[in-house]
Specification:
The radius of gyration is 15 Å and the shape is globular. The relative contact order is 0.19. The protein is about 30% helix and about 25% strand. It is of the alpha/beta class. The protein has a single domain, classed as Alpha-Beta Plaits. It has 3 helices and 6 strands, in the order αββββαββα.
Length: about 140
Amino acid sequence: MELNQLGRIVHEEWLKTAEIRPEVELGEFVVMPNHFHAILGLTGHSGLMQEAGVCNTPLQSQFIKAADQADTDLSFQSPSQTIGAIVRGFKSSVTKQIRQTGIANDIWQRNYYEHIIRNEDSYRDISNYIMNNPQNWLEDEHYSL
């Protein structure tokens, strides 16, 4: 799949997420014609992965986070370092840039989905799903020309 201008905006903004937020680790991701899938990890001051994860549509995103430890203590966490804050910032930046191209309609659905990856098998399955998504696009229930 070759990204158009809007897809390139989504791709570049996702990469910037890790640049501007040192607590973020990006895993596999793919920008699709009408959605986005990604694995997102957070490290706290302890360096351990925190459990949380998110995803979203009409650029129907899946921001899915891998957790090294299922029971990591999340009690002391800045609101700006939550998955929700990261997703809001990403979506906001993408929306602002896309609107500068002249597209004024909403591109994101209001909420997002979340999934916690708790083990290596789950991580591998989700990673493979993300990476194989472009090859499966023609069979996708949301496929359109």
